[in-house]
Amino acid sequence: MRRAASGRRFGLARGRLEGESPTMQRGASERHFGMDWLRIGAFQLLILYHVGMAFVPWDYHVKVASLDWVSIPMQLTSPWRLSLLFVVSGYASAALLGRSAGAGAFLRQRMARLGLPLLFGMIVVVPPQPWVQLVTQHGYEAGFASFLAHDYFRFRTIAGIAMPGWMHLWFVAYLIAYTLVLGLGHALPARWREMLRRGGERLFAGPQILIVGIAFVWWTRIRLIPGWEDTHNLVDDWSAHAHYLGMFLFGVLLRGSAPMMRTIARWWKLAALLAIGGYLVLAGLEYRHPGPAPLPPAMRPLLWAARAVESWAAIVALIGLADRYANRDHRWRATLAEAVFPCYLVHQTIILLVGYWLRGSAIGLLAQFLILIAATLAGCWLFYLAGRRIEPLRPLIGLKRLPGPGAARLRPATA
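Request: output the structure for the sequence above.
Response:
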Protein backbone atom coordinates (compact mmCIF):
# COMPACT_ATOMS: atom_id res chain seq x y z
CA MET A 1 0.00 0.00 0.00
CA ARG A 2 1.52 3.31 -1.03
CA ARG A 3 1.39 6.19 1.44
CA ALA A 4 -0.51 4.08 3.99
CA ALA A 5 1.14 5.85 6.91
CA SER A 6 0.55 9.36 5.63
CA GLY A 7 -2.88 9.08 4.07
CA ARG A 8 -5.31 6.74 5.78
CA ARG A 9 -8.33 7.93 3.84
CA PHE A 10 -6.45 7.66 0.57
CA GLY A 11 -5.34 4.18 1.51
CA LEU A 12 -8.90 3.08 2.24
CA ALA A 13 -10.20 4.57 -0.98
CA ARG A 14 -7.44 2.84 -2.91
CA GLY A 15 -8.41 -0.41 -1.18
CA ARG A 16 -11.95 0.00 -2.49
CA LEU A 17 -10.65 0.30 -6.05
CA GLU A 18 -8.73 -2.93 -5.55
CA GLY A 19 -11.75 -4.67 -4.04
CA GLU A 20 -10.26 -4.75 -0.54
CA SER A 21 -11.91 -3.95 2.77
CA PRO A 22 -10.37 -1.91 5.58
CA THR A 23 -9.64 -5.21 7.34
CA MET A 24 -7.53 -6.21 4.33
CA GLN A 25 -5.80 -2.86 4.41
CA ARG A 26 -4.80 -2.93 8.10
CA GLY A 27 -4.51 -6.65 8.74
CA ALA A 28 -7.15 -9.22 9.60
CA SER A 29 -6.03 -9.55 13.23
CA GLU A 30 -6.59 -5.88 14.15
CA ARG A 31 -9.74 -4.54 15.75
CA HIS A 32 -12.56 -3.83 13.32
CA PHE A 33 -14.31 -0.74 14.63
CA GLY A 34 -17.08 -1.15 12.09
CA MET A 35 -18.16 -4.39 13.77
CA ASP A 36 -18.17 -2.60 17.13
CA TRP A 37 -20.49 0.06 15.72
CA LEU A 38 -22.65 -2.63 14.14
CA ARG A 39 -23.01 -4.33 17.52
CA ILE A 40 -23.96 -1.03 19.16
CA GLY A 41 -26.47 -0.27 16.41
CA ALA A 42 -27.96 -3.78 16.48
CA PHE A 43 -28.86 -3.50 20.15
CA GLN A 44 -30.31 -0.02 19.68
CA LEU A 45 -32.49 -1.39 16.89
CA LEU A 46 -33.62 -4.16 19.23
CA ILE A 47 -34.77 -1.59 21.79
CA LEU A 48 -36.70 0.30 19.11
CA TYR A 49 -38.21 -2.97 17.88
CA HIS A 50 -39.40 -3.94 21.36
CA VAL A 51 -40.98 -0.51 21.80
CA GLY A 52 -42.78 -1.11 18.50
CA MET A 53 -44.00 -4.49 19.79
CA ALA A 54 -46.16 -2.62 22.30
CA PHE A 55 -48.13 -1.14 19.37
CA VAL A 56 -48.25 -3.97 16.81
CA PRO A 57 -50.96 -6.69 16.71
CA TRP A 58 -48.42 -9.44 17.45
CA ASP A 59 -47.96 -11.30 20.70
CA TYR A 60 -46.07 -9.29 23.30
CA HIS A 61 -46.03 -8.99 27.08
CA VAL A 62 -47.78 -5.60 27.20
CA LYS A 63 -49.96 -3.76 24.70
CA VAL A 64 -50.34 0.01 24.61
CA ALA A 65 -52.26 -0.21 21.31
CA SER A 66 -52.85 -2.65 18.44
CA LEU A 67 -52.35 -0.97 15.06
CA ASP A 68 -52.26 -3.11 11.91
CA TRP A 69 -50.17 -0.62 9.92
CA VAL A 70 -47.31 -0.77 12.43
CA SER A 71 -46.58 -4.28 11.13
CA ILE A 72 -45.31 -2.79 7.86
CA PRO A 73 -42.31 -0.84 9.26
CA MET A 74 -41.67 -3.64 11.76
CA GLN A 75 -40.93 -6.01 8.87
CA LEU A 76 -37.93 -3.84 8.05
CA THR A 77 -35.96 -5.48 10.90
CA SER A 78 -38.08 -8.42 12.04
CA PRO A 79 -36.47 -11.11 9.82
CA TRP A 80 -32.84 -10.33 10.73
CA ARG A 81 -32.56 -8.43 14.00
CA LEU A 82 -31.83 -11.51 16.16
CA SER A 83 -29.66 -13.19 13.53
CA LEU A 84 -27.48 -10.08 13.37
CA LEU A 85 -27.08 -10.10 17.17
CA PHE A 86 -25.75 -13.65 17.03
CA VAL A 87 -23.40 -12.83 14.13
CA VAL A 88 -21.82 -9.89 15.97
CA SER A 89 -21.71 -11.94 19.19
CA GLY A 90 -19.87 -14.71 17.37
CA TYR A 91 -17.45 -12.18 15.93
CA ALA A 92 -16.79 -10.65 19.36
CA SER A 93 -16.46 -14.09 20.98
CA ALA A 94 -13.83 -15.13 18.43
CA ALA A 95 -11.89 -11.94 19.17
CA LEU A 96 -11.99 -12.67 22.91
CA LEU A 97 -10.95 -16.28 22.34
CA GLY A 98 -7.98 -15.07 20.31
CA ARG A 99 -6.82 -12.91 23.25
CA SER A 100 -7.36 -15.64 25.87
CA ALA A 101 -4.76 -18.01 27.28
CA GLY A 102 -6.52 -21.07 25.89
CA ALA A 103 -10.07 -22.41 25.68
CA GLY A 104 -10.34 -23.01 29.44
CA ALA A 105 -9.53 -19.42 30.34
CA PHE A 106 -11.90 -18.20 27.63
CA LEU A 107 -14.80 -20.30 28.92
CA ARG A 108 -14.24 -19.29 32.54
CA GLN A 109 -14.21 -15.62 31.58
CA ARG A 110 -17.30 -15.89 29.37
CA MET A 111 -19.28 -17.92 31.92
CA ALA A 112 -18.63 -15.21 34.49
CA ARG A 113 -19.44 -12.35 32.09
CA LEU A 114 -22.64 -14.02 30.82
CA GLY A 115 -23.75 -16.40 33.57
CA LEU A 116 -23.75 -13.97 36.48
CA PRO A 117 -25.79 -11.33 34.61
CA LEU A 118 -28.25 -14.04 33.53
CA LEU A 119 -28.82 -15.12 37.14
CA PHE A 120 -28.97 -11.52 38.34
CA GLY A 121 -31.41 -10.68 35.59
CA MET A 122 -33.72 -13.60 36.35
CA ILE A 123 -33.75 -12.78 40.08
CA VAL A 124 -33.80 -8.96 40.07
CA VAL A 125 -34.46 -7.47 36.62
CA VAL A 126 -36.97 -9.83 35.01
CA PRO A 127 -39.70 -10.33 37.70
CA PRO A 128 -41.76 -7.22 36.79
CA GLN A 129 -42.20 -8.57 33.26
CA PRO A 130 -44.31 -11.68 33.97
CA TRP A 131 -46.27 -9.71 36.58
CA VAL A 132 -47.20 -7.04 34.01
CA GLN A 133 -48.15 -9.72 31.48
CA LEU A 134 -50.28 -11.62 33.99
CA VAL A 135 -52.06 -8.46 35.17
CA THR A 136 -52.75 -7.02 31.71
CA GLN A 137 -53.51 -10.22 29.78
CA HIS A 138 -54.64 -12.86 32.28
CA GLY A 139 -56.55 -11.03 35.01
CA TYR A 140 -53.98 -11.56 37.74
CA GLU A 141 -55.09 -9.54 40.75
CA ALA A 142 -52.22 -9.70 43.24
CA GLY A 143 -49.81 -6.83 43.59
CA PHE A 144 -46.15 -7.06 42.65
CA ALA A 145 -44.93 -7.64 46.22
CA SER A 146 -47.38 -10.51 46.65
CA PHE A 147 -46.36 -11.90 43.25
CA LEU A 148 -42.71 -11.97 44.34
CA ALA A 149 -43.48 -13.50 47.70
CA HIS A 150 -45.93 -16.19 46.58
CA ASP A 151 -45.62 -16.93 42.86
CA TYR A 152 -42.45 -15.95 41.04
CA PHE A 153 -39.98 -18.14 42.93
CA ARG A 154 -42.21 -21.20 43.27
CA PHE A 155 -40.91 -22.87 40.06
CA ARG A 156 -44.26 -23.33 38.42
CA THR A 157 -46.22 -22.13 35.42
CA ILE A 158 -49.05 -19.58 35.57
CA ALA A 159 -51.08 -18.98 32.39
CA GLY A 160 -48.33 -20.66 30.41
CA ILE A 161 -45.58 -18.42 31.81
CA ALA A 162 -42.76 -20.34 33.49
CA MET A 163 -41.42 -18.77 36.68
CA PRO A 164 -38.77 -17.92 37.54
CA GLY A 165 -37.92 -17.33 33.90
CA TRP A 166 -35.53 -15.49 31.66
CA MET A 167 -38.02 -13.73 29.36
CA HIS A 168 -35.92 -11.61 26.92
CA LEU A 169 -32.72 -12.94 28.52
CA TRP A 170 -33.18 -16.17 26.56
CA PHE A 171 -30.65 -14.59 24.20
CA VAL A 172 -28.01 -14.71 26.96
CA ALA A 173 -28.81 -18.34 27.77
CA TYR A 174 -28.47 -19.31 24.11
CA LEU A 175 -25.26 -17.30 23.81
CA ILE A 176 -23.81 -19.23 26.76
CA ALA A 177 -24.65 -22.52 25.01
CA TYR A 178 -23.05 -21.39 21.74
CA THR A 179 -20.00 -20.12 23.63
CA LEU A 180 -19.56 -23.63 25.05
CA VAL A 181 -19.70 -25.01 21.50
CA LEU A 182 -17.00 -22.54 20.44
CA GLY A 183 -14.80 -23.44 23.41
CA LEU A 184 -15.15 -27.16 22.74
CA GLY A 185 -14.42 -26.59 19.07
CA HIS A 186 -11.21 -24.80 20.00
CA ALA A 187 -10.09 -27.99 21.73
CA LEU A 188 -9.92 -29.75 18.35
CA PRO A 189 -6.47 -30.28 16.82
CA ALA A 190 -5.14 -27.15 15.11
CA ARG A 191 -5.00 -28.98 11.78
CA TRP A 192 -8.73 -29.75 11.97
CA ARG A 193 -9.60 -26.19 12.92
CA GLU A 194 -7.60 -24.84 10.00
CA MET A 195 -9.32 -27.27 7.65
CA LEU A 196 -12.74 -26.16 8.87
CA ARG A 197 -11.79 -22.49 8.52
CA ARG A 198 -10.55 -22.91 4.97
CA GLY A 199 -13.64 -24.93 4.06
CA GLY A 200 -15.89 -22.21 5.44
CA GLU A 201 -14.03 -19.50 3.54
CA ARG A 202 -14.39 -21.45 0.29
CA LEU A 203 -18.09 -22.00 0.99
CA PHE A 204 -18.71 -18.25 1.32
CA ALA A 205 -16.30 -17.06 -1.39
CA GLY A 206 -17.79 -15.13 -4.28
CA PRO A 207 -21.48 -14.61 -5.01
CA GLN A 208 -22.40 -17.91 -3.34
CA ILE A 209 -22.15 -16.06 -0.03
CA LEU A 210 -25.67 -14.87 -0.87
CA ILE A 211 -26.93 -18.15 -2.31
CA VAL A 212 -25.59 -20.34 0.50
CA GLY A 213 -26.75 -17.97 3.23
CA ILE A 214 -30.29 -17.57 1.91
CA ALA A 215 -30.59 -21.32 1.37
CA PHE A 216 -29.36 -21.95 4.92
CA VAL A 217 -31.91 -19.60 6.47
CA TRP A 218 -34.71 -21.06 4.34
CA TRP A 219 -33.75 -24.64 5.28
CA THR A 220 -33.45 -24.05 9.04
CA ARG A 221 -36.66 -22.04 9.23
CA ILE A 222 -38.87 -23.74 6.64
CA ARG A 223 -37.66 -27.26 5.99
CA LEU A 224 -36.30 -28.27 9.40
CA ILE A 225 -39.32 -27.15 11.46
CA PRO A 226 -41.74 -25.01 9.39
CA GLY A 227 -43.13 -21.84 10.88
CA TRP A 228 -40.21 -19.60 11.87
CA GLU A 229 -41.31 -19.73 15.50
CA ASP A 230 -38.90 -19.72 18.48
CA THR A 231 -39.90 -21.37 21.76
CA HIS A 232 -37.09 -19.70 23.78
CA ASN A 233 -36.88 -23.04 25.58
CA LEU A 234 -33.24 -24.06 25.48
CA VAL A 235 -33.87 -27.80 25.29
CA ASP A 236 -36.34 -28.05 22.40
CA ASP A 237 -35.86 -24.98 20.19
CA TRP A 238 -34.25 -26.94 17.36
CA SER A 239 -35.07 -24.68 14.42
CA ALA A 240 -33.86 -21.63 16.34
CA HIS A 241 -30.67 -23.40 17.42
CA ALA A 242 -29.88 -24.48 13.88
CA HIS A 243 -30.40 -20.91 12.68
CA TYR A 244 -28.80 -18.92 15.49
CA LEU A 245 -25.87 -21.27 16.07
CA GLY A 246 -25.15 -21.07 12.35
CA MET A 247 -25.20 -17.27 12.54
CA PHE A 248 -22.95 -17.30 15.61
CA LEU A 249 -20.43 -19.58 13.87
CA PHE A 250 -20.54 -17.39 10.76
CA GLY A 251 -19.50 -14.47 12.97
CA VAL A 252 -16.71 -16.60 14.45
CA LEU A 253 -15.49 -17.49 10.96
CA LEU A 254 -15.71 -13.88 9.81
CA ARG A 255 -13.37 -12.69 12.57
CA GLY A 256 -9.93 -12.38 11.03
CA SER A 257 -10.97 -13.76 7.63
CA ALA A 258 -9.65 -11.41 4.97
CA PRO A 259 -11.15 -13.48 2.10
CA MET A 260 -14.65 -13.27 3.59
CA MET A 261 -14.40 -9.55 4.27
CA ARG A 262 -13.18 -9.07 0.71
CA THR A 263 -16.17 -11.06 -0.57
CA ILE A 264 -18.60 -9.00 1.51
CA ALA A 265 -16.95 -5.77 0.33
CA ARG A 266 -17.64 -6.85 -3.24
CA TRP A 267 -21.21 -8.12 -2.86
CA TRP A 268 -22.83 -6.05 -0.12
CA LYS A 269 -24.51 -3.65 -2.54
CA LEU A 270 -26.29 -6.50 -4.31
CA ALA A 271 -27.20 -7.88 -0.88
CA ALA A 272 -28.73 -4.52 0.03
CA LEU A 273 -30.90 -4.61 -3.09
CA LEU A 274 -32.04 -8.15 -2.27
CA ALA A 275 -32.84 -7.14 1.30
CA ILE A 276 -34.91 -4.20 0.10
CA GLY A 277 -36.74 -6.48 -2.34
CA GLY A 278 -37.48 -8.99 0.42
CA TYR A 279 -38.79 -6.23 2.64
CA LEU A 280 -41.06 -4.84 -0.10
CA VAL A 281 -42.62 -8.28 -0.54
CA LEU A 282 -43.22 -8.58 3.21
CA ALA A 283 -44.60 -5.05 3.42
CA GLY A 284 -46.95 -5.81 0.51
CA LEU A 285 -48.20 -8.95 2.21
CA GLU A 286 -48.80 -7.03 5.44
CA TYR A 287 -50.68 -4.36 3.51
CA ARG A 288 -52.86 -6.86 1.65
CA HIS A 289 -53.49 -9.07 4.69
CA PRO A 290 -53.38 -6.83 7.80
CA GLY A 291 -53.87 -8.09 11.31
CA PRO A 292 -52.74 -11.19 13.21
CA ALA A 293 -54.71 -13.71 11.15
CA PRO A 294 -52.48 -16.22 9.27
CA LEU A 295 -51.89 -15.69 5.57
CA PRO A 296 -53.78 -17.86 3.09
CA PRO A 297 -51.81 -21.10 2.54
CA ALA A 298 -51.05 -20.19 -1.07
CA MET A 299 -49.24 -17.03 0.07
CA ARG A 300 -47.07 -18.61 2.75
CA PRO A 301 -44.24 -19.86 0.49
CA LEU A 302 -43.78 -16.30 -0.76
CA LEU A 303 -43.72 -15.06 2.84
CA TRP A 304 -41.05 -17.57 3.90
CA ALA A 305 -38.94 -16.96 0.80
CA ALA A 306 -39.04 -13.17 1.31
CA ARG A 307 -38.11 -13.54 4.97
CA ALA A 308 -35.17 -15.80 4.14
CA VAL A 309 -33.90 -13.38 1.49
CA GLU A 310 -34.24 -10.30 3.70
CA SER A 311 -32.84 -12.09 6.76
CA TRP A 312 -29.52 -13.06 5.19
CA ALA A 313 -29.09 -10.30 2.61
CA ALA A 314 -29.60 -7.58 5.23
CA ILE A 315 -26.84 -9.08 7.40
CA VAL A 316 -24.36 -9.16 4.52
CA ALA A 317 -25.33 -5.62 3.52
CA LEU A 318 -24.99 -4.26 7.05
CA ILE A 319 -21.56 -5.84 7.53
CA GLY A 320 -20.51 -4.35 4.21
CA LEU A 321 -21.82 -0.93 5.20
CA ALA A 322 -20.04 -1.12 8.56
CA ASP A 323 -16.82 -2.14 6.86
CA ARG A 324 -17.07 0.57 4.23
CA TYR A 325 -18.26 3.55 6.25
CA ALA A 326 -17.87 2.87 10.00
CA ASN A 327 -14.46 1.24 10.39
CA ARG A 328 -13.01 4.07 12.47
CA ASP A 329 -12.73 4.84 16.15
CA HIS A 330 -14.42 7.58 18.15
CA ARG A 331 -14.05 8.70 21.74
CA TRP A 332 -17.58 7.45 22.52
CA ARG A 333 -17.14 4.00 21.01
CA ALA A 334 -15.65 2.26 24.06
CA THR A 335 -18.30 3.68 26.40
CA LEU A 336 -21.19 2.80 24.09
CA ALA A 337 -19.80 -0.68 23.49
CA GLU A 338 -19.50 -1.26 27.23
CA ALA A 339 -23.04 0.04 27.84
CA VAL A 340 -24.63 -2.34 25.32
CA PHE A 341 -24.96 -5.39 27.57
CA PRO A 342 -26.25 -3.60 30.71
CA CYS A 343 -28.77 -1.76 28.53
CA TYR A 344 -29.88 -5.04 26.99
CA LEU A 345 -30.39 -6.57 30.45
CA VAL A 346 -32.78 -3.87 31.63
CA HIS A 347 -34.45 -2.45 28.51
CA GLN A 348 -37.48 -4.76 28.27
CA THR A 349 -38.36 -4.39 31.94
CA ILE A 350 -38.44 -0.61 31.47
CA ILE A 351 -40.58 -0.93 28.34
CA LEU A 352 -43.13 -3.14 30.10
CA LEU A 353 -43.37 -1.00 33.21
CA VAL A 354 -43.74 2.25 31.26
CA GLY A 355 -46.14 0.55 28.83
CA TYR A 356 -48.20 -0.68 31.79
CA TRP A 357 -48.39 2.89 33.09
CA LEU A 358 -49.37 4.24 29.64
CA ARG A 359 -52.20 1.75 29.04
CA GLY A 360 -55.56 3.45 28.91
CA SER A 361 -54.12 6.94 29.29
CA ALA A 362 -55.49 9.90 27.37
CA ILE A 363 -52.08 10.65 25.89
CA GLY A 364 -51.93 10.45 22.09
CA LEU A 365 -50.34 7.41 20.48
CA LEU A 366 -47.42 9.34 19.02
CA ALA A 367 -46.68 10.86 22.41
CA GLN A 368 -46.90 7.42 24.02
CA PHE A 369 -44.44 6.03 21.50
CA LEU A 370 -42.00 8.89 22.11
CA ILE A 371 -42.39 8.56 25.90
CA LEU A 372 -41.61 4.85 25.69
CA ILE A 373 -38.48 5.47 23.63
CA ALA A 374 -37.25 8.33 25.82
CA ALA A 375 -37.98 6.50 29.09
CA THR A 376 -36.28 3.32 27.87
CA LEU A 377 -33.14 5.08 26.66
CA ALA A 378 -32.92 7.19 29.82
CA GLY A 379 -33.56 4.21 32.08
CA CYS A 380 -30.98 2.08 30.29
CA TRP A 381 -28.37 4.80 30.51
CA LEU A 382 -29.01 5.42 34.21
CA PHE A 383 -28.83 1.68 34.91
CA TYR A 384 -25.47 1.50 33.17
CA LEU A 385 -24.03 4.63 34.80
CA ALA A 386 -25.11 3.54 38.27
CA GLY A 387 -23.95 -0.03 37.80
CA ARG A 388 -20.50 0.92 36.55
CA ARG A 389 -19.91 3.13 39.62
CA ILE A 390 -20.91 0.47 42.18
CA GLU A 391 -18.12 -2.06 42.21
CA PRO A 392 -20.15 -5.08 43.48
CA LEU A 393 -22.72 -4.52 40.72
CA ARG A 394 -20.25 -4.45 37.83
CA PRO A 395 -19.96 -8.25 37.32
CA LEU A 396 -23.72 -8.62 37.84
CA ILE A 397 -24.45 -6.40 34.83
CA GLY A 398 -21.71 -7.83 32.64
CA LEU A 399 -18.91 -5.33 33.30
CA LYS A 400 -15.32 -6.12 34.23
CA ARG A 401 -13.95 -5.35 37.66
CA LEU A 402 -11.52 -2.50 37.09
CA PRO A 403 -8.45 -2.15 39.30
CA GLY A 404 -7.22 1.15 40.65
CA PRO A 405 -8.83 4.01 42.56
CA GLY A 406 -10.77 7.02 41.36
CA ALA A 407 -11.42 7.72 37.72
CA ALA A 408 -9.41 4.69 36.59
CA ARG A 409 -12.15 2.49 38.00
CA LEU A 410 -14.68 4.12 35.70
CA ARG A 411 -12.71 3.86 32.48
CA PRO A 412 -14.67 1.72 29.99
CA ALA A 413 -13.21 -1.63 29.11
CA THR A 414 -11.95 -1.91 25.54
CA ALA A 415 -13.01 -5.54 25.02
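The mean pLDDT is 89.
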